[in-house]
């Protein structure tokens, strides 16, 4: 059962090599991932009639660039989804909607990142003159950048709920437990809570191990109709439901719900549209660009109440291999490498196909993917056929 107007399936996933070294051209990374995804699905470039991608800037080729690079003859639907969207999942959500609406039959979605692009988001220098919303921020030292904002959110959560930093450390430690089982992951060494608590501060109280790990890499996904999926190479993974949300105020700082933004709205909308509930989920792939985001998402999705993550997660074993809430089973952006939201989608698909080898969650039939931050939220429920 699906809430979409036309049943949609994910039929192909692909990755380029992931690395920290060198400066590979974004085009070569994106094309490698796209070709791998098409091959995985048993399709050719000529079968593609929709391309969607999410980008911040020049670190990635655009949709039309990709069409030329792959030799796609014509696009019936395409878009370059810019930064105001649910992180890398934005392209996939657009692709699902395009196929469901009949705007295209087979959509290729991708995200390309370079290590250099991953280092953006630091503290900017202040302007000589300020106006608009910045006049209420800059005099107090808020000079922009996502790191400053996430540090504020982490501090607010710790103070408001009287919780220790260890709660965030559970997310970082868990990422390494899974990445140790993933040969594609860039960071595979074990991480202890002491390692986390002694790691360098970036913007107090945000630590370097709260932040995702920039890499050179690209990831791609192929989406088509459930009907066509029956004739393709891989077992189909169906999109049961999807949702967006911004929250009231739709702002990183002035949002009415500072700690969660649109997450609760997105989760409520997702479960209302889905034929399933959180209790049905076998594997969860939740945005971990920064550990405070993951904690907020888990609470919003219904695993526990506001501020209750620490009590709910305990020693973190429930998130780890063999636990009852397997989380970010490839290691997430904290350990596999920063692939943005579409990396979580691909891992969910591989889990539901039963193709994750040592990190495979037993009998996985339902996956949850949630991505984006605060006023830029998106989520999907996927099911194995």
From TrEMBL:
<protein>
    <recommendedName>
        <fullName>Thiolase C-terminal domain-containing protein</fullName>
    </recommendedName>
</protein>
<dbReference type="GO" id="GO:0016747">
    <property type="term" value="F:acyltransferase activity, transferring groups other than amino-acyl groups"/>
</dbReference>
<dbReference type="Pfam" id="PF22691">
    <property type="entry name" value="Thiolase_C_1"/>
</dbReference>
<feature type="domain" description="Thiolase C-terminal">
    <location>
        <begin position="265"/>
        <end position="371"/>
    </location>
</feature>
<dbReference type="InterPro" id="IPR016039">
    <property type="entry name" value="Thiolase-like"/>
</dbReference>
<dbReference type="InterPro" id="IPR055140">
    <property type="entry name" value="Thiolase_C_2"/>
</dbReference>
<dbReference type="InterPro" id="IPR002155">
    <property type="entry name" value="Thiolase"/>
</dbReference>
């Amino acid at each position: 059962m699906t809430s979409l107007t036309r049943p949609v399936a994910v039929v192909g996933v692909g990755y380029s090599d992931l690395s920290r070294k060198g400066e590979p051209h974004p085009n070569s990374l994106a094309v490698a991932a796209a070709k791998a995804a098409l091959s995985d699905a048993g399709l050719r470039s000529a079968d593609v009639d929709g391309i969607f991608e999410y980008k911040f800037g020049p670190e990635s080729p655009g949709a039309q660039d990709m069409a030329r690079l792959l030799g796609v003859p014509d696009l019936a639907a395409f878009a370059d989804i810019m930064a105001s969207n649910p992180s890398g999942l934005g392209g996939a959500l657009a692709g699902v909607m395009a196929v469901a609406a009949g705007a295209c039959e087979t959509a290729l979605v991708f995200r390309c990142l370079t290590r250099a692009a991953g280092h953006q988001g630091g503290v900017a220098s202040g302007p000589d003159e300020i106006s608009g919303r910045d006049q209420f921020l800059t005099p107090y030292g808020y000079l922009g950048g996502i790191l400053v904002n996430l540090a504020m959110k982490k501090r607010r959560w710790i103070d408001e709920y009287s919780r220790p930093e260890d709660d965030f450390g559970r997310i970082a430690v868990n990422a390494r437990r899974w990445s140790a089982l993933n040969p594609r992951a860039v960071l595979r060494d074990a991480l202890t809570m002491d390692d986390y608590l002694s790691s360098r501060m970036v913007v107090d109280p945000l630590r370097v191990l709260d932040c995702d790990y920039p890499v050179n890499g690209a990831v791609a996904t192929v989406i088509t109709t459930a009907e066509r999926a029956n004739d393709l190479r891989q077992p189909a993974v169906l999109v049961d439901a999807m949702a967006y949300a911004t929250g009231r105020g739709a702002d990183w700082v002035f949002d009415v719900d500072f700690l969660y933004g649109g997450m609760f709205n997105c989760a409520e909308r997702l479960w209302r549209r889905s034929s399933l509930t959180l209790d049905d989920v076998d594997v969860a792939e939740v945005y971990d660009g920064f550990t405070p985001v993951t904690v907020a998402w888990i609470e919003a999705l219904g695993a526990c109440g506001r501020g209750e993550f620490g009590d709910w997660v305990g020693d973190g074993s429930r998130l780890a291999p063999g636990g009852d809430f397997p989380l970010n089973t490839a290691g997430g952006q904290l350990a596999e490498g920063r692939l943005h939201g579409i990396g979580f989608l691909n891992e969910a698909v591989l889990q539901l196909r039963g193709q994750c080898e040592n990190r495979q969650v037993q009998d996985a039939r339902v996956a949850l993917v949630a991505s984006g931050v605060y006023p830029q939220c998106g989520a999907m429920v996927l099911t194995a056929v």
